[in-house]
Please model this.
Amino acid sequence: MKRVYSVLGALSLLLLIPVPASAEPVGWLGGATSPGWVGTAAPAPGTRAPGTANGYYYPNAPISVSLTAGKYSLSDPGGSALFCGIQGNGPVTNTTGVFGSRSGTDLTTACADGYYAAQQFSGMLRDWLGRDGLDGKGKWAPMFVGLTAVNAYWNGHTANFGRTKDNARQLVNLEIIAHEFGHGVFQHTPGGFDGGVQTYQLNEASSDIMGALTEHYANNPNDPPDYLVANETNPLGRGPERVMYQPSLGPRDEPDCYKPNMNNIEVHDGAGPANHFFYLMAEGSSPVGKPASPICAGGPASVEGMGIRDAGRVWMRALMLKKPSWTYTDARVAALTAVKQVFPGDCAKFTTVRNAWNAVSVPAGTGEPTTC
Ligand SMILES: [Ca+2]
Ligand SMILES: [Ca+2]
Ligand SMILES: [Zn+2]
Model:
């Protein structure tokens, strides 16, 4: 079965995006076999130059672009293979280094927003999580805007971004870019991204987590950090699609708590308990100035948060302990092991991780660490 990893999932038949046979992952970048990308290789990087994204979401945002023979392009001068093009084309270029017109429908503007967001995600991975690129070895992947669908997806080697239902905006803000490329991180950590239903649910949650981390890292006043998914773009005109601090508040059928029948839940909806866990680990159950987060039956009286940056480090380390067919219980064991590795002897953080899992009803795993 071919799978795509989208931000919204199949909300209706119209939003089901089939992946052409040629789009099956065939390697890191895929080059000529990427859908819509007809080049034979990623463009050669030019000289690093400062540029400006004059985006719809991010007007006047600083970006780092490539300069070759008087032409600026939305292409990573570091040679990571990140570039932004409009479906079917190579990197957007111009002669000024200022990209976009602040229009919600112009696709060059969409690339400006998306490229800025990808660089922020890359910076977050590097500065907060100590990870160099999607694969941990400096590599990234191309992105394309202009998908004629109310969705965005990662196909294993490129990220593709569509538009809102009312066709007024493109789905290219920080969290959506980080969500799609976040699937590349999940893919390129041990165990890969194949497995059972819960593996795909955790993959979706991991991408939502990368989105929240990136919003907090960028801390852009035009997109204040939050734990809501698709609130900025409002793709279907019904507000956020997912609410990490209390998944059941969203418009979908997302559970707040892990249940024995997780395997019967759609993969984006099934991200709910893991998103909820991450919020509790980062912010706690009753953070000052932020939304309270409920605790499921049988959980602790409260959870004390450790802050999103440290929570991100625990999650990233847990991903490094991932194995094929990862389940919720496996993720619990991995996070408990991870917090001991990242913060040795820090009993408060260990307790936070255990309480957060207990607060979303994920059962203990065999042989999991029981003491800090
Ligand atoms: Ca935001
Ligand atoms: Ca958001
Ligand atoms: Zn996804």
About this structure: Residues 5-187 form a domain with the Elastase; domain 1 fold (CATH 3.10.170.10).
